[in-house]
Design a protein that fits this description.
Layout: E1 12-17, H1 22-37, E2 42-47, H2 58-76, H3 95-107, H4 112-124, H5 133-142, H6 147-154, H7 157-172, E3 180-184, E4 190-195, H8 200-214
Helix pairs in contact: 1-4, 1-8, 3-4, 3-7, 4-5, 5-6
Length: 215
């Protein structure tokens, strides 16, 4: 597992999420505001793995998700395409969506958060096939990534292992739910500053207090 940035002597915001986590989808504007408000901090995205290898379908989860999404939509205003829930055969395996991000990051690291948010839109708004490389290869074009190389990497064992390594790191950092945000100080200390959905205002305040405390 290679995460050299964990040893870097620079303050870092570590965002742990899964593109198919509905609260992570609602959190997208908030974490973007945090990233923009802290330009002197490094920013890293770790894929948590909500249901990697999952086999549950809308037949199993549809009623729960319908209620859950409506609750999130009412609280945050983020739009959901409920047609997604009509396909009773849709399998909720989140590994391919996470791997799609890991591949994009391996080709162009600076796009990781934007690509992550676009994968969220593919699922929650556009209702594309979340298990197919075709969906992500099409998105890769938006970021001027070579489509052939993207497909090759997506299907490679190397990227499957890299994705599993993200899941492992998330677990080793003690993350129990998504979205979560960890502050890594320039002294290498890790602080859990958010476990679950919160606003950018509250998160920035918590980060500020954590930094003052360690100083």
């Amino acid at each position: 597992m290679s995460f050299e940035w964990l040893n870097a002597q620079s303050p870092t915001i570590i965002y742990i999420g899964d593109p198919l986590c509905s609260w992570c989808y609602a959190f997208a504007p908030e974490i973007s505001e945090v990233k923009e408000a802290l330009p002197n901090y490094d920013f890293k995205l770790v894929l948590g793995g909500l249901r990697p290898g999952g086999t549950e379908t809308n037949a199993d989860l549809g009623d729960f998700l319908d209620h859950h999404w409506k609750e999130i939509e009412q609280r945050t205003g983020m739009p959901f395409n409920y047609d997604r829930l009509k396909d009773k055969s849709l399998v909720y395996d989140t590994e391919p969506a996470c791997r799609a991000l890991v591949v994009a990051r391996s080709m162009k690291p600076e796009i990781e958060l934007d690509f992550f948010k676009d994968v969220q839109k593919l699922f929650y708004v556009e209702s594309v096939d979340i298990l197919s490389v075709d969906s992500y290869a099409e998105l890769a074009k938006k970021y001027n990534l070579d489509e052939g190389e993207y497909r090759t990497r997506f299907l490679s064992e190397e990227m499957k292992i890299a994705t599993a390594n993200d899941f492992r790191l998330s677990s080793e950092m003690g993350v129990k739910g998504f979205p979560s945000v960890i502050l890594k100080t320039d002294k290498g200390q890790l602080y859990m500053v958010s476990n679950g959905y919160t606003t950018s205002e509250k998160l920035l305040s918590t980060i500020k207090k954590a930094v003052q405390k360690q100083d």
